[in-house]
Amino acid sequence: MSDSSHYEENHTGPIKTPMQLLVAVFFSFVVPIFLIIGLVYYVTSANKPAAGAVNMERTTAENIQKIGAVEIRDANREMKTGEAVFKAQCSTCHAAGLAGSPKFGDQTAWAPRIKSGFASLLNSALKGKNAMGAQGGGDFDDFEVARAVVYMANAGGAKFPEPVKVEAAK
Question: What angle (nearest 5°) sits at the alpha carbon of residue 136, between those of residues 143 and 124?
Answer without folding.
Answer: 95
